Amino acid sequence: MKNHLLKTCVLLSLLLALLQLTPALAETVLVTGSNQGIGLEFAKQYAARGWTVIATHRRDTPPETLAALQQQYPKVRVEQMDVTKHDQIEALAAKMKGEPIDILLNNAALIRFAPFRDREGNAGQMFGTLNYDHFDQFMHTNVAGPLKIAEAFVENVKASKLKLMVTISSGAGIVSVLPRSADHYWYRTSKAALNSAMRLLTVDLADEGITVVMFHPGGVQVESWGETKLPGAMTHEEAIGKMTKTIDGLTIKDSGRFLNNDGTDMPW
Ligand SMILES: NC(=O)c1ccc[n+]([C@@H]2O[C@H](COP(=O)([O-])OP(=O)(O)OC[C@H]3O[C@@H](n4cnc5c(N)ncnc54)[C@H](OP(=O)(O)O)[C@@H]3O)[C@@H](O)[C@H]2O)c1
Question: Domains of the chain by range and CATH?
Answer without folding.
Answer: 25-260 (3.40.50.720)
